Amino acid sequence: MMSAQNRLLVVCGLLIAVASASVTALAVNLSRPSGAASSPPPVLTLAASTSGNTITVVGVGIGSATSNQAQLYLGVTATRPNVRDAVSVAATDMSHLLSAVHNQGVQDKDIQTTGVSVSQQTNCCPQTINGYNASTQITVTVHGVTSATPLIEAAVDAVGNDLQIQGINLSVADQGAMLKTARSAAINDAKTKAQDWAQLSGHHVGGLIGVTEIVSTTGGFSCDQCGGKGGGGGVAIQPGVSSVSVTVAVTFELAA
Predict the structure, then answer these.
(1) Which residues, 6 or more positions from 234, have their beta carbon under 8 angstroms from its beta carbon?
(2) Quick one: which H or E segment has residue 185?
C-alpha cells in the first residue's frame, strides 16, 4: 500500500447534488490498494496511474439552446356549500378544460393529472365551516412555445373564473447537442485547472485516470400563478434560453 506522502491530491470546486432535476453519474474506479474491501465492478475502467501520484480537479461546462417546448400547469377549483356540489362542479370544469386542450391539438400522452383535492372553507373567530373547495390540476406539454398562448386563451374561455394557471416551464426537447457542448467545456475546464496545479507544483499532467459526472438542467422560464386565476388571455410567452450544466471531477496522473 502506497503512503500518503506519495500522493498529491488537489481538489478544486464543489460537486453539487441535484434534487429537482436530472442527475447522471458516471463512476470510474481507480486501482484499489491490496487488502481493501471488495467493491462492485466499475462502470468504466481507465488506465491506472503508473507513478502513484494523481491530481483531481473539478471542471464545469454549460450548453444552451432556445426553448422549444412548454409545460403548462393548469387546474380548476370550485367552491360550494357541500362537498358533493363542489366536486361535481370541479369535474364539469375539468371536462371543459380537457376539451379545450384537445381542441388545441394536444394529445392524451401530453396531458397528466397531477393533483386532486377537497378542502374546507372556513370563517374565523369563531371558526365555522361555510363551504368546500374542490380542485383538480393537470400538466399539459405543448411542442412549440408559440402554442402556449392560444392554449391559455382557450382554457380561460372554457372554464372562466374557476380556472387556475399555476405556472409554466420552458425547456429543450432534445438536449443531446447541449450535453455534448457542456461536456466538452467541462473537460476542457478540468484540463486547464489540472495544468495550472501541475505547473504550480513542478509537475506535468499525465494520462486520464477517472471521471465522475453530474448533469443539471435548468428551464428557460417559470412562474408561480402565471396569469393568476381566471381573467383574460393573451399572455405573452417568451422562449428564452434553456441550459444544461455538467460538472465533472477528473483525476489525472501527475508526472514528474
Answers:
(1) 149, 153
(2) helix 176-200
Enclosing H/E stretch for 188? helix 176-200
Among the listed residues 130, 35, 121, 143, the one whose alpha carbon sits nearest the alpha carbon of residue 77: 121
Residue 85 half-sphere exposure, CB side, CA atoms within 13 Å?
6
- 136 phi/psi in degrees, rounded to 5: -140, 135
Tens place of pLDDT per residue across the chain (256 aa):
433 333 333 333 333 332 333 333 333 333 333 333 433 333 333 444 455 688 999 999 999 999 999 999 999 999 999 999 999 999 999 999 999 999 999 999 999 999 999 999 888 877 888 899 999 999 999 999 999 999 999 999 999 999 999 999 999 999 899 999 999 999 999 999 999 999 998 999 999 999 999 888 765 444 443 444 444 446 788 888 899 999 999 999 988 8
Domains of the chain (ranges; CATH) run 43-66+173-212+228-256 (3.30.110.170), 69-171 (3.30.70.2970)
**Residues near 225 by beta carbon (within 8 Å), at least 6 away in sequence:** 165, 166, 167
Packing angle, helices 83-103 and 148-159, rounded to 10: 140
Which one, of 213, 143, 151, 150, lies nearest residue 171 by Cα?
A: 143
C-alpha cell belonging to residue 205: 499532467
User: Is the whole model's pTM more than 0.85, yes or no?
Assistant: no
Cα dihedral value 142, 143, 144, 149, nearest 10: -10
Reduced DSSP (H G I as helix, E B as strand, rest coil) percent helix, strand, coil of the chain, to 5: 25, 40, 35
